[in-house]
Amino acid sequence: MTKDTPSIPAGVGISRRGILALGGGLAGAAALAALDPRQARAAMTPAAASFVNTGARAAATASHYPAAAFMHVNPGAKFIDITKVEESLGAPAGTNAVAGDPSVDCAVAFNYILDWYAAKLRALPDVRDAQNRVDLSYAIYVPEGTFHVHSTIQYSGPVITIPNSAVLSAWIHMRILGAHRDRSVIRLVDGATGFGAGEQRAVIDYSQAATFDNWSAQNILRDVTVHTGSGNPGAIAVDFFGANNAAIDRVAIVSGDGQGVAGLQFPIGITSGYYSDILVDGFDYGIEMREYHFISPTMEHITVRNQRVAGVLVGDCLPTLRDLVSENSVPAVQIVGAGAHVVLIDSALRGGSATTPAIDFQTGHLFARNVESQGYRSTIEQGSTTLVRGAVDEYVSGPVFRFDEHGESRSMGLKIEEIPDAPWPAHRDWANVDDYGAAGAEGTDDTAAIQAALNSGRTVVYFPKQAYWVSGTLQVPPQVERIEGTFSSILSTSGEPIFRVASGGRGKPLTIIDLHRSGGPNSAVDGTAVPLVDHAMPRTLSLRNIRTGGALGGQLYRGRAQGRGGDLFFTNTNGHKAPTGELRNQKVWMRWENTEAKDVANHPIGAGAEVWVLGYKVEGGTQNFTVAPGAKLEVLGGVCNSYAPTSFGSGAEDVAFIGTGGEMTLVLASNGQDAPHPEPANAPQFHTVLRDTDGTTTKEIMWDELPERTGRRHQWVIPLYVHRTA
């Protein structure tokens, strides 16, 4: 075995093992300058060269759910319309929100729902049970109209706490969904009390003044505009929090007069998930993520404009951004945290000023690729040093680690495909499983009823109640294009996959969305080894906002197509792991995949698979990714979170990344305890971060060969690792 160190041009700094390291922005520029510029330009992928920035996009069709999805029509449903709170929950007269009337404080309707839900959480013996309960899933629905608020949307009363653990003061599994981004408006009245200069008060606050909370998962904000009015300089439009698989989709955040502290703020650890199609207009900061070391959102199709200080502010955080469009005279991105790790690709930073850079890279770590800059003094600056002028093909602020000392030093550049659009047809094309006999009650078997809905010829099948139980596998015919969970749970009482996609050839893409798969009574088998979806045909499959149950996550997927498998999209999911989850002979695009299996390897990439990853998280001491011969893996952003060291200290050390003959590009950072590890004392969680072989040569990278993630004991950054074959 040979253990190689990276081939690095002369630079500054020494790593923790005495290896020459190129930490910081200037050194990264030196590393790229050492390459043949013609080679760097030639390596630019066709996908990057042809990419057209869109920034934030609104849905083409309004999200009008069928009547049976609403509690005021169907008492067993989960959606609560803010104009029907009295009918849905028995609220006092005058609680309902009223569109278009500035004298009505519609925060009353929102907060009644939140307090009603908070009472349910407080009634639990242990609020952590809410993660896996199948009867505590709700959504607040904002129909079309402008709904004025005079105060903050936030639950009240005593702080909800976790017994013998950290304070829980945020929401769990709570969603605010609108009908359409541009037509469902939550608007703060002008000159609202409590939103003056220096107040820093949110219009929508997903927390209650917490600084840490790792249980409030699956929160969502979708298809609304949040408008802070005029004369509210202390306003924060959205103070968002959500661990694991939270999401914001198709949201506009607007200041009426440009004033305000921040449009979207991530103030609490742990905040992660997938955030897409967000427009922020005005405020000091468009998007602000400051202090906590584990704030790690994956963000795509983002527009920030008309900010007064910076478009995006990054403290000691780990964001991954793609298609950021900034229209500003201030810096588009300002990185101020020493422990920051920022990935920025396929972005356009426009407007600019002759006195400021597009990216104010004060400290931390940065990977940038295919970034256009217009009007700024420079594209990337660190202090008084200009690092990059003009367009960025690829920039790495630290050393480039290579499998082959003489091999390629650029990222792989796999072709990127956008998430397929899921259809939203007229309600006549929706099949309600209840209409076909599904009871949605424990002790009943809804297999036949759900199968009948799937066989109805409708393009959308939806689940209005909280949970459904099945005893066998549901066959998805080619006519079904969307399985709409509406945040239901589906539980299996057998060891069989829940859905099988086995007919229709390539056909139209199938989307399964907003569904919680739970292990049920057979969780030891069903939650670990049996997949939610058995994919046996080359049909394109998109899984979005899927939680597969349990703290360790259930099994998400098994591919069984003969020959070339169907294209696959994982978006804001968890549960992709061994033993049945190996991806083979197919192209896969993952956007924030959050598997926390601590007992088996995560993300097995098999022969013939090409897998592109935009942000991920794995916890504990098991493998993050394994790459087989003939496979390709490109990871652009993510978190190797060894803070939950289940298997560490057991004597059998795992390796985070294992290659056995495939190609890979890795750009990511770790997160872990900022204290000595208990066993053995002062040891890191992963001693060996990467072990990669081509059958002849083996390369290992140890934790202390990598650049340090400043401020986090024994934590590291992979600025760029490249193993590419000719």
UniProtKB/TrEMBL annotation:
SUPFAM superfamilies: Pectin lyase-like. Pfam families: Pect-lyase_RHGA_epim. PROSITE patterns: TAT. Residues 430-475 form the Rhamnogalacturonase A/B/Epimerase-like pectate lyase domain. It comes from the Bacteria. InterPro entries: Pectin_lyas_fold, Pectin_lyase_fold/virulence, RHGA/B-epi-like_pectate_lyase, TAT_signal. This is Rhamnogalacturonase A/B/Epimerase-like pectate lyase domain-containing protein.
